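The data are quoted verbatim for reference:
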Amino acid sequence: GSEVYVWLGRSAGAGARRAGIQVGQMLLEKDRFRPSWVRLTRVLEGSEPFVFRTKFVDWFGLDASRTAAALLERRHQDLQATGQILAVTAQEAARRRREAKSAALALSNEERRALARAARRRVKNTAKAMATLARP
């Protein structure tokens, strides 16, 4: 193929990492059927690119929850790094929840009903949109 990956486990020592890279380079040098432009890509455990993960049928099935959590965490970190979201401390998050709860308690019954109707409408519209997208 046109891709050669060397996967390096999180607990691999420096010697094992060097040996893995050397084996990958030897594979590229000795394989006369592989094009000369093929690159060796080093892949670190926990930072596997999507293209790498698609090469394995069971990747998402075996480790779906951990992989999904890691992807979400990486996305969150990317957003923080680019300033698209701000980091919030646990205390700040708790304060915001308390404020939202006290604001909700201050609503009249009619206002609560209106908010509930709006939430149901959003769910219904989302379901319609998803059904529309699912159509061939």
About this structure: The mean pLDDT is 76. The radius of gyration is 25 Å. The chain has five helices and two strands.
